[in-house]
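question for whoever is on the cluster today: can someone run the full assembly for these? two chains, 631 residues total. i dont have access anymore since they changed the login thing
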Amino acid sequence: MLDYYNITEEFSEEEKLVAATTKSFTDNEVLPIIEKYYSDGKFPMDLIKTLGELGLLAVTLPTKYGGSELNYVSYGIAMQELERGDSGIRSFASVQNSLVIYPIFTYGTDEQKNKFLPKLASGEFVGCFGLTEPDFGSNPGGMLTTATKTPKGYILNGAKMWITNGSIADIAVVWAKLDGKVNGFIVEKGTPGFTTIEMKGKHSLKASVTSELIFNDCLVPLNNRLEIEGLRGPLSCLNQARYGISWGAIGSAIASYETALNYAKTRIQFGKPIASFQIIQEKLVWMLNEITKAQLVSYHLGRLKDKKLDRPQQTSLAKRNNVDIALQCARLAREILGANGILNEYPVMRHMANLESVKTYEGTHDIHTLILGADITGIEAFS
Amino acid sequence: MNILVCISRVPDTTTRILVGGDGVSIDTQGVKFIVNPYDEYAIEEGLRLREKNGGTVTAICVGPDAAKEQLRTALAMGVDKAVLVKTDKYFDSYFAAKNIAEVSKEMKPDIILLGRQSIDFDSFQVPSYLAELLELPSVSVVSKLTIEGNKVIAERDVEGGKEILETELPCIISAQKGLNEPRYPKLPDIMKAKSKPIEEKQPVEVEPKVSVIGMEIPSRKRIGKILADTDADIEEIVKSLHEEAKII
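^ ran it for u. tokens below:
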């Protein structure tokens, strides 16, 4: 596995073991089946149980709630290995770890934590995160979904879109405006007035479930509200997920790079391997160069995060850079593979198509540019 | 059941091996080390025996301080405790076996499990040395193991068939691929392994029986054979896959 700067030497014993376990999982459980599920446009539901058993759905959560209680570097390593398999599998784990377990652990009541966290950690429960709406993506603060407090509970009305795991979720963490302020609610599957529709026709993240969530006078019990108010609630969750995505993108890039390298060494044209041509070497070295930089960025960000010294803007830089270079790696790998690059015999085109979504979700590439622009100039270009 | 599993620290199978400057050892710069893959079957079998019969699984390794990493892997898989017989020197199979035997005499395990060979030097000697030093029965290259009471039934793969042997506890079993499917360490168990003990012991110093006097990287010669689809050719393909490549 590509590690040109021997970063794994810096890993602790636990981190090395996390890498080995997740690598085996991806090699043995994901890679043999993923092309079929991707072609069929289905999420491999059978993997959920194993992901839960291995502790990959609640990497940093304390053991008393069924988590693995490991650090953020371990979480990152796990996401990298999962996305080496497929962005859809990593997305599933990102949502569970960062967008569902994290807010319930951070903003939930003891009752909510005890009720939901162990089941989410084991994979018995699948969660989803409802923030984005049909007309409010990059501008979540404009959301139209509302919550109204009544003596019986909160009544939710509105619609969410582009929700990973939506139709397979047992619970949804839903963000809605209560008296004009963003609030979080846990909505259980089967609550009257709550329905989901799976979104079809995707050319990307095909091995992942994406859904619309619809709330029509949906009554949520009073004790299902999270103890957080304002946009910083959902944004703090996104920051967690983006950190994992920055590592995940490296996994995807490594898959493209290794496929292209092996292909270039064995594909003969003009009587010699195409790896002997300077133009191919340049492409491979570009990938090596960018992947190595991305690895160092995420590794260092992880160490900062474990010391609680990170800033969300640093996560923006990592997500923005790493997903972008991963997409470019997939495109270069496709070029090196020539016509073969479009076949599902190789993972390259699947990664390329997936990364188009990854570049857009969890803060688009451009929004992260503006976050960083605002950070260094002190002037917000989007307000 | 008191179970002892011997593990060895070996270079990762995907590592590119280079001979070191001294000509008698490998250059360890940048080499990733792993638990000897055959020992993983031994660990798994030990864990399964404990799950069935109760007891304790202890892992032992003779090697440098860095071998704690491999012991930690065993602990994360579910082994209860570990012993490191620490040495930084070159050692041969006799040294390893002698030191495992010393620890074993104190521990008095009901069964000692280990891989059929370590994939670094491939000398296949430790199981037999151990049996001799401890005066215990041993069955090597075992692909199926059944233990009932004191009775041990071990299956071995032999050319074109199976051999079924019977012996009694305590005994030594060396594991072949196929004995079981080793588990991956689960993340919560990786965390818990941090707090499990690794006892360090000084080795019993014995002179090696053999020493390495030279190491060379084999020169790579590709001998390509082009075969067609006649019956004779197909037979030859099958024969070479079976006898040379040993994959069928």
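summary bc i know u wont read the tokens: Chain A touches chain B through 23 residues (CB under 8 Å). The longest strand of chain A covers residues 153-164.
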